[in-house]
Amino acid sequence: MVVNDGSGWAGFGWNDWTDLSLVRARLDAGADPNAGLFVHGRPLHAAAAIGSPEVVAELVRRVDDVDAEHEGRTALWEAVYNNRPDNARALVSAGADPWRPMMNGWSPGRLGLATPTLTSSPFPTARRACPLPRPRPWRRPDT
After folding, report:
1. Is pLDDT at 129 greater than 50 in this prediction?
2. pLDDT (tens digit per residue) in 46-77
3. What does the mean pLDDT of the chain come to?
4. How many domains does the chain have?
5. Dihedral, CA atoms, 30, 34, 35, 41, nearest 10 degrees?
6. DSSP 3
7. Domain assignment of residue 50, given as a range
8. What CATH number should be reported for the domain holding residue 87?
9. Measured CA angle at 55 (ends 54, 57), to 5 deg
């Protein structure tokens, strides 16, 4: 992925999200930490999905809202969905809400609990209720 939209992220590729010095240089040169990416929508979402925890930590210090959504998902959802537990930990440490419902009522915390690779959850144990959907009682179809 290479972006070129005038937001300061032009020419920024997939592997660049692991390079803290490169991300800092872009941000210091005026790249917008809140917008500018085509696929991920926001730099924090891209870093959460494919970047390093250091880059995620740098971006959370500069974004307006660590729980901002793109297409109904937060950066924390992206980190959990993409199996990036260190990125998820960085986001939760910065105040991201692991129990915020999204994606048909699922939260990033609930997704993490259902993911075998995140068995040591990065989420606080004192969590809000995250109910599972109740099954509907079986009813005979009208015939």
Report:
1. no
2. 999 999 999 999 999 999 999 999 999 999 99
3. 83
4. 1
5. 140
6. B
7. 14-118
8. 1.25.40.20
9. 65
Mean of pLDDT values over 92-119: 86
CB 9 within 8 A of CB 43: yes
**Which of 143, 113, 117 is closest to 131 using CA atoms?**
113
Upper half-sphere CA count for residue 85 (Cβ side, 13 Å): 11
Using CA atoms, how far apart are residues 120 and 113, in angstroms rounded to an integer? 9
C-alpha 30: how far from its chain's center? 23
9-41: pLDDT as tens digits: 988 888 999 999 999 999 999 999 998 766 658
Asked if 130 and 109 touch (Cβ cutoff 8 Å), the reply is yes
75's CB contacts (< 8 A; 6+ apart) are 42, 44, 45, 47, 48, 56, 66, 67, 68, 91, 96
Q: Which two tokens stand for residue 98?
A: 């692991």
What integer is the mean pLDDT of 102-113?
90
Q: Which of 33, 81, 37, 80 is nearest to 55 (CA)?
A: 33
Distance (Å, whole) CA 11 – CA 42: 15
Whether 37 is in a domain gets the answer yes
Amino acid code (one letter) for 21: S
